[in-house]
Write a structure and sequence with these properties.
207 residues, alpha/beta, Rossmann fold, 8-stranded mixed beta sheet, 6 helices, 29% helix
């Protein structure tokens, strides 16, 4: 336990120059990342790097997870949609930052593994769905925030924008000349889009 705590502390110090939201840093420290990686990679779990989790997917680099969470501007009372469950790690961090999280994944095997990891981490406010994340999850909409852990082609999926509550924020990697994070804010005047830093995610599969 002491070793894990020291590893978490070291990771947070690496993230601190890039992340200004202390709630996000505290949430990153609270989630045991080693539970969300394959057993053989547990020693590398607290490194600031992406790691393979099988099915052609990765657990995202911690600084990217933290930055996406920071851009969502969560206070603690929000309903959040997480598109692309993968390992469940991003959903776990969001669960510490928001009231309730719905996380959707196409691959049922990854969703089942994420369920086990979330249970082992003691996280109870994440609802897992197997389905097409590009369509969102209408039964629980609207959402105060939507996180997308796969890259959209050219622009954010319209279905996701339409499931944002008034004032809601969507953070999604978008492919263009290069791949960058985009934040979409649902304002009284429509959807305001702003570009942020470059990232690298697998493509968002639609349909």
């Amino acid at each position: 336990m002491a070793r894990a705590t020291a590893s978490a502390d070291r990771l947070i110090e690496q993230l601190r120059p890039h992340i200004g939201d202390e709630r996000v840093l505290a949430s990153m420290a609270a989630v045991p990342r080693d539970l969300f990686v394959p057993r053989g990679l547990a020693e590398a779990a607290w490194e600031n790097t992406a790691l393979p989790i099988g099915a052609g997917q990765t657990i995202s680099q911690p600084v990217v997870v933290a930055r996406m969470c920071e851009l969502l501007e969560l206070r603690g009372d929000e309903r959040v949609l997480d598109v692309g469950t993968g390992s469940g790690y991003h959903a776990a961090v969001l669960a510490h930052l928001a009231a309730e999280v719905w996380s959707i994944e196409r691959d049922s095997r990854l969703s089942r593994r994420a369920e086990r990891a979330l249970a082992a981490a003691g996280i109870e406010n994440v609802h897992l769905i197997v389905g097409d994340g590009s369509l969102g999850y209408q039964p629980a909409a609207p959402y105060d925030a939507i996180n997308v852990a796969a890259a959209a082609a050219g622009e954010p999926p319209r279905a996701l924008e339409e499931q944002l509550a008034a004032g809601g924020r969507l953070v999604v990697p978008v492919d263009g000349p290069d791949q960058r994070l985009m934040r979409v804010r649902h304002t009284p005047h429509g959807f305001e889009r702003t570009w942020h830093e470059p990232v690298r995610f697998v493509p968002l599969v639609e349909g």
